[in-house]
Design brief:
With 701 residues, the protein is of the alpha+beta class. It has 4 domains: 2-188, no CATH class; 195-382, no CATH class; 387-543, no CATH class; 552-699, Nuclear Transport Factor 2, Chain: A (Roll). The chain has helices at residues 7-11, 19-31, 40-58, 60-71, 84-93, 97-107, 119-141, 145-162, 166-188, 195-212, 229-239, 245-257, 261-277, 281-293, 302-311, 315-323, 328-335, 341-357, 371-376, 378-390, 410-421, 459-482, 490-513, 515-518, 522-525, 540-543, 580-598, 612-628; strands at 2-3, 77-78, 392-396, 403-407, 558-559, 630-646, 650-665, 670-688, 691-699. The protein has a 5-stranded antiparallel beta sheet. The chain is elongated and about 120 Å long.
């Protein structure tokens, strides 16, 4: 066997050492015999090899010949089979444990496996344990903790296979446990291009925290002797800057589900960081909802919630939150601030964001916070305007004789918005800026007309009028939205509400007079109901049954089929009860055209099947990308589609997508990639101008 060792390294001297230095080193090596438990036979062979080397290097002629061999490229020493183990021990002692471990491991594997129970097997097994541990120590000194763990794991597996040295194996296992935090740090601190190592580090971090019993360390685990709570907190603070804000949010959400209160608070902080840094104000609502559910003893949450209210331009509510704080020092500071209270709240919010929220993330630059740029941002302004518009709710009474317009306080508005968001994850939304309900129609409940007015009419006439009124309602809502009337002035709301009632009155009278002629035109009306005998009793279930057309809500979910759709040949959906296949085709056209437009390939022209609000959102998103010098490559495939609800003017379907989005600079440089499978999206279709249009969607349900 040839070993990567020369005579100078074997005895432990420099090539320039004198004969006296060589003899002195020889004597020290003889006196310092390894006492780890090697057999007498192999230790005797070790001493003999040292003696032969000392004789060669102290003889001038032999040394000269050997040095010439080294100069001519000779490397390594040959050892006879009965001296191989002794040579490996000397290689280990010379400071090369990794080389010694690899060769020893190979010698213990077939076909070189020594005889069972022989002294050679015992010496090689012991040497494998010693060299594995020293190799790990050497890698730790180089801060290569993952490589160190690999040596320990290989040593443990080898000892398990050999069935020897249980105590040595336990030492290696303890070393491996103690090494875990350093391994995690090593894997996570690597370049983000090494995604495999990063994912492995994240998984190991989550498992470590779970075994400890959450961030609080409530469980007694195998790591308690090596990583107490104080040490863990220091370790975690060192780990955080290597994680993105979304990675931390996912981790804390999982830990919160397992009952960790500390993780719940960090979820609140992470959501706030995403909301502010990425200009996603809806995340602030979600953060506030999380904070309100936390039950921390001694936590004064009022100033924190006040900061969120301030960022959402609710000054009165923010002031009330700060005034409700249990911190007397804070209240005194606010009350005695030389400027106005708003300025004081802004200073507090700015410091909180800079020092507690926007720090410790790999993808957030914790630069100085600029609140002015936050409020000047166009998306923030639009979001706040939508909240103000949401404060006006219109309710039309069932008899169409009374209409009430109610102005709600900002507190009620934001509370309602909190509940509507639920657990929506913004990173799953293909639209920047969150859930934007561009299309908001008047909330008209299902109406039951007075039986005395229609006592001489059949159920067909009743159903017919309901459908026609719904069409008028939806068209009027589209008109208001397209003309941007809603939101401009509350007085205009009163005016158009009156016009709406007037239109309904005329429409009902006209429809009643022309009902007999209209009811015969099945191709136009396409009515989904059954003509009943006058004396037949009608149940609610009977009303919704049809004679020729199968209702949409009786269809089962239809799995996605690989069908190519030509957008230029797609026709409007004019039937009263479109099939799931028709709806899927419409959504596919939308996804295809939106993806091409955001990639800068084509223009978007889907006004016949998509609402203007949705198209304008897409145009605005593309304009923002152009300003940033980027474009998006989006690939969306429908995997499943299910019906959630259906009325004569509104259809809601639930869709599961395979969604992939790549952000690329105009120069061709890759920026980011998001891949979600499945991405759950709720699509909403409305009936307008005698055809169905896609009017809104909500992602990440």
């Amino acid at each position: 066997m040839e070993l990567p060792l020369d005579h100078f390294r074997l005895i432990g001297v420099n090539p320039s050492a004198t004969s006296e230095e060589i003899l002195r080193a020889f004597q020290l090596r003889l006196d310092k015999t390894p006492d780890e438990g090697f057999t007498y036979e192999v230790l005797t062979q070790r001493s003999e090899l040292l003696r032969l080397t000392a004789d060669l290097l102290t003889d001038p002629e032999s040394r000269r010949e050997y040095e010439n061999l080294l100069l001519n490229g000779s490397s390594g020493l040959e050892f006879s089979s009965n001296r191989e183990v002794a040579g490996l021990i000397l290689l280990w002692e010379s400071g090369s444990p990794k080389e010694a471990f690899r060769i020893t491991r190979k010698a213990l594997q077939p076909p070189q496996t020594p005889a069972l129970g022989s002294s050679r097997e015992a010496d090689l097994t012991l040497l494998a344990a010693l060299t594995a541990r020293d190799s790990a120590i050497q890698e730790q000194q180089l801060r290569s903790y993952s490589n160190a763990a690999d040596f320990l794991q290989e040593g443990i597996q080898l000892l398990q296979r050999m069935g020897k040295l249980v105590d040595r194996r336990r030492e290696l296992e303890e070393d491996l446990v103690a090494l875990l935090p350093y391994r995690i740090l090593d894997l996570l601190s690597r370049d983000l291009k090494d995604q495999e190592s990063h994912k492995k580090g994240l998984s190991m971090l989550e498992n470590l925290i779970i075994k400890r019993g959450g961030l609080e360390g409530n469980n007694k685990s195998e790591y308690s002797d090596y990583l107490n709570q104080q040490e863990f907190e220091a370790f975690f603070q060192q780990i955080k800057p290597f994680l993105t804000v979304q990675e931390q949010l996912d981790l804390f959400l999982e830990l919160q589900k397992r009952g960790s209160l500390d993780a719940g608070f960090l979820v609140f902080i992470s959501l706030t960081a995403i909301g502010f840094s990425r200009r996603k104000p809806e995340k602030l609502f979600e953060a506030r909802r999380i904070l309100k559910k936390l039950n921390f003893s001694g936590l004064d949450s009022m100033p924190l919630v006040g900061c969120l209210d301030l960022l959402l331009a609710d000054i009165d509510q923010a002031s009330a939150r700060f005034s409700s704080s249990s911190d007397e020092n804070l209240r005194d500071w606010l009350n005695n601030y030389p400027g106005n209270k708003l300025e004081a709240m802004c200073i507090f919010c700015k410091n909180w964001l800079e020092n507690d929220v926007l720090v410790g993330y790999r993808d957030i630059d914790s630069k100085e916070v600029d609140l002015d740029s936050w409020f000047e941002d166009r998306e923030i302004q639009e979001f706040i305007e939508k909240l103000e518009n949401k404060s006006i709710k219109t309710t039309i009474k069932p008899n169409f004789q009374k209409q009430q317009i109610k102005r709600e306080s900002s507190t009620n508005i934001t509370e309602d918005f909190d509940s509507s968001l639920g657990n929506v994850d913004e990173r799953r939304l293909p639209w920047p800026g969150g859930i934007k309900k561009e299309f908001e129609t008047l909330d008209i409940q299902e109406t039951k007309f007075n039986e005395e007015i229609f006592k001489n009419k059949s159920i067909e006439a009743y159903k017919y009028l309901i459908e026609k009124i719904a069409v008028l309602k939806f068209s009027f809502g589209e008109f208001l939205k397209d003309q941007e009337i809603i939101g401009r002035s509350p007085y205009l709301i009163y005016l158009y509400a009156f016009l709406l009632l007037f239109t309904f009155g005329i429409g009902i009278g006209f429809l009643r007079n022309n009902y007999k002629n209209s009811i015969k035109d099945d191709a136009v009306v396409d009515k989904p109901f059954v003509a009943l005998d006058k004396n037949q009793k009608v149940s609610d279930k009977d009303i919704i049954q049809e004679k020729k057309i199968k209702p949409l809500n009786e269809l089962k979910s239809i799995p996605e089929k690989s069908t190519a759709i030509n957008s230029s040949k797609f026709k409007e959906l004019t039937t009263a009860s479109p099939s799931l296949e028709d709806i899927r085709a419409l959504i596919n056209i939308w996804l295809l055209n939106k993806g091409n437009y955001l990639a800068g390939k084509t223009e978007i022209n889907l006004s016949k099947i998509v609402s203007n609000g949705l198209i304008n959102r897409t145009i605005e998103e593309r304009q923002n990308d152009i300003n940033k010098g980027i474009f998006k490559e989006i690939n969306s495939q429908i995997q499943k589609i299910d019906l959630e609800s259906q009325t004569s003017s509104r259809i809601v379907v639930l869709v599961q997508l395979d969604y992939q989005e790549r952000i690329i600079k105009n120069s061709g440089e890759f920026v980011n990639e998001t891949s979600l499978n499945p991405l759950k999206v709720k699509y909403i279709l409305g009936f307008s101008n005698k055809s169905w249009k896609l009017v809104d969607f909500v992602s990440g349900l």
